[in-house]
Amino acid sequence: MATKSILITGGAGFIGSHVVRLFVKKYPEYRIINLDKLTYAGNLENLRDIEQAANYVFVRGDICDYEMLKKLFAEYAIEGVIHLAAESHVDRSIKDPFTFARTNVLGTLSLLQAAKEAWDGQWDGRLFYHISTDEVYGALELGGGFFTEETRYAPHSPYSASKASSDHFVRAFHDTYGMPTLVTNCSNNYGPYQFPEKLIPLFINNIRHRKPLPVYGKGENIRDWLYVEDHARAIDLIFHRGKVGETYNIGGFNEWRNIDLIRVIIRTVDRLLGNPEGYSLDLITFVTDRAGHDLRYAIDSSKLKNELGWEPSLQFEEGIEHTVRWYLDNQLWLDNVTSGAYEEYYQKMYGNK
Question: Catalytic residues, which ones?
Fold first, then answer.
């Protein structure tokens, strides 16, 4: 019998699937309910290895569907929420901000309200854990320090604005109603199962097919990179030991200029494919910079390290090696995602929702 029911939203996505897998395997006494709408970035192939586990339940649904959420909380007596479901690609948010506001803001609010109604002030043993991004803090100058948990919010894209709003709603439910909440803001994740619109899997795939590698501006924007399994470990630790009402920043301590990162990817992919050194450098193509492109993100994770003992397990080059090998070893997964074949399968199985 399950001793605790935990709802993980967005569990068929990139980060979510790693969190679901970790919790299902590490906590057989928990019942893990994976709620995912299966939009373009959700793929149940990410979870084939645990889909038959006795403590795992998949539910296809939209976090904006308040009535469905209320039924879900009642049916499974949910005591904990790990909220990862979100629209997350900046370029898409620039083209379609309404979708980001709907999912990231109204979806989070629907989930908060459903939890509040279900828990009805009985907060003992309950927790609403919301996963957010470092992009809510805006941008840093070169050599301009790091984002901390006290950094003022200054979002610059529709994506980061929608995540900032959802963060504020989570904290408001803690302050207004006393709901036990936690918020974490993480740096750029990378690793297996990431949808190939994001930089690292996109470039791995493009190198495979000798396609251009589009680099915004001069490639001088700097990001802090966090291996996804390290992030999942941090989420596990914070869910079980984090202080209610607090915010924790999760960073990889790995700052890279985009152009330098791309050269590492090229060098690694070419080596593993047996290409001569520098073979794919000619694929680099500089394109017009993204509107409002923040110069630098960098996270100070010292609070998480000092209070809970977490730190990344992998250096970046080691993580890139694992990541590139995974995509090259799982080319069928990559081809099914880039072709859209997986979406057609889910439409046949579940219908359009």
Answer: 134-135, 159
